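TODO from last week: model Cobalt transporter.
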Amino acid sequence: MACTCSHEPAPPKPDSKFRTALWIALVINLAMFGVELIGGAYAHSSALWADALDFFGDAVNYGVSLAVLGASLYWRASVALLKGLVMAGFGFIVIAKVIYAYTQGIPPEAITMGAIGVLALAANMFCAFILYAFRDGDSNMKSVWLCSRNDAIGNVAVILAAVGVFGTGSMLPDIIVAVIMAVLGLTGGYQVMKKAQQERKESSDEKQAFQSTE
């Protein structure tokens, strides 16, 4: 009788600790998206809006990561590839927002920027802390760690921008920080996509090797 079963390695059992960390990060990022979206509109801050979009993108990424836990390496890498594209896409959106803000020429409100920046930093440092243990995992785990790490760096920059705006009355610090955050999104997305492509190729090669031995 011919064997019809698949010899592809079984996907790993979902890590309950990683799942819990993802749920916590998902809730925090959705909450901060709302806070920064409203705060950014009130303060006329491109950096806060950039960070709000990043929070939303991260929440989507965490939700997708939860959906593919326990899937095969190929599908986890495929989803990570999509997430890398999203990260890079948000980088381009932020750049467009910066250009629009520059044409308007309205300086942001520094006190609101700083207060929300501190709150966002605390939220992202907590997310980065609970996801730190999974930073060296597959491309899916790496992507969620990079999201939180980039956000924490971005929040520090937002706080510094608020100080700069307060001291100079210029919108330039806000714009500079928004550009930095855009670059973080683009480079982080590239790293995730590169590793995801490698894992997809390795998974396909392994599957072909198993099929050739049947």
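Done. Residues 1-14 have pLDDT under 50 and may be disordered.
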